[in-house]
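**User:** Here is a favour to ask of a fellow structure person. Please take any protein you like and set down a full record of it. No explanation is needed for now; the record alone will do.

**Assistant:**
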Amino acid sequence: MFLSLLLQAVAEVANNSGAGLAVMGAGIGAGLVALGAGLGIGRIGGSAMDAIGRQPDASGKIQTAMLIVAALIEGLALFAVVVCLLISFKL
């Protein structure tokens, strides 16, 4: 799948059209955004569990802060994926 997309992008660049590279870059960007968001939320969850294990009485505050930060990361990731999709469909 990726190889065919890469070959199509190279063929379009050979025809003096930069649309192929833009679409390929948008696809790679969307994948990196999803990967980064997943890693970030996983790290937040792991750190929150460590913090709750050390301070069980503060679990409510830790959990609230964890959910707020995870929601902000998800919002940013969704925005970035939408921008990548707009770039790929605009061309």
